[in-house]
STAT6 protein
Amino acid sequence: QVLSLPIVVIVHGNQDNNAKATVLWDNAFSEIDRVPFVVAERVPWEKMCDTLNLKFMAEVQTTKGLLKEHYFFLAQKIFNDHSARLEDFQSRHVSWAQFNKEILPGRGFTFWQWFDGVLDLTKRCLKSYWSDRLIVGFISKQYVCKLLSTEPDGTFLLRFSDSEIGGVTIAYVIRGKDGSSQVENIQPFSAKDLSIRSLGDRIRDLEQLRNLYPNIPKDQAFGSHYNKEQTGKD
């Protein structure tokens, strides 16, 4: 006999997300010589960061992993704490319930359901953009407003949607004649949307987008991702 990697048997596709969470938690945090099915209920946040990073890089098949500022955003999300500093999270422990049972405040899904949606979207539609570091991704809407509010008209960045599973949205700044700024967020694009028209082509279509934050002309940043336009009956 030999110990296998964790296995979960499901009877319907809607259980797939929960099964993947169970396998991930068991695989990452169980002891090799443990009693079968005994896994820690709480794990250090730093170990969770390593696990999420390895999972992201393996699923998306990229060498560009998560950054320190990404972990900070994810910690704020899973702990529902926007007042703590980055260092404050390093000593905390995250529970299985916070990871895959408790619904995020004001949402209809768990942290893992949201993160798995980001994984799926990035793997299917955004791999090259992520690998070129064109997507900030893991950043809050509030922090985006702070970043963009002092930038020139048409400055934009890309982040993963907070309100939808598996969506990427574009935030950009509009500056009025009086110098006041307003940050707008475009309706998130899903994998289905991006299979119809790619993210690069959508960015090219939107004339109000000019420079990728902090100051890269959009054609320079995304030009290699534009598809050659076809003319004719299409």
Q: What stands out?
A: Residues 62 and 136 are 15 Å apart (CA to CA). The radius of gyration is 20 Å.
